[in-house]
């Protein structure tokens, strides 16, 4: 399919979403999205995504205890915690610092904390992923980031911050939806949906080839797998997951 086809279908989708475009033009959509719609949507999506991606997450976090510090503690920083869907996979006694650029997830986050009392909650920081200046350098054993790199302002800046806050030998765990193969129909529909999806879902980008950023970052070791998470009728089925060692 050609570029004109993509532009035509984008225009059709924009017409369907015209009320949201109008609210955005008036400056109403973004604050409503951040405070009400996106926290509500993400908590509902997390329930579905957790069910579909449970196998990948169990595999992903299986070796997390291997990165405990010499003292036996496991200090973990989660970037873009949202409503806390990863807490169930963390080992008992793990000390977790939560961060998110959006402070409006507190209700869902509190529910997750109450359900997962096997871990210790250190603090919650309102912080952008590419600016974690509140976290000292070399102070954590592991950093976790799931379904976040699709919407950060600067992926490479985020990975530099991850490397800075990790202690030597610490690990960065990730699970992200990414661009489909460029020759596939999935990629075509990702291109069609891109502008409207990004507006509606708080900056989420459908066509990022995040594995390339991870491969180019200054990690000493990278374990990365491509997979599909069964989310029919959505453009976010292609995923990557794995961990990288500082």
Automatic annotation (TrEMBL):
It comes from the Eukaryota. The chain crosses the membrane at residues 7-29. One of its GO terms (molecular function) is S-adenosylmethionine-dependent methyltransferase activity. Keywords: Membrane, Transmembrane, Transmembrane helix. Residues 77-174 form the Methyltransferase type domain. Pfam families: Methyltransf_11 (PF08241). This is MET7A protein. The gene is Mettl7a.
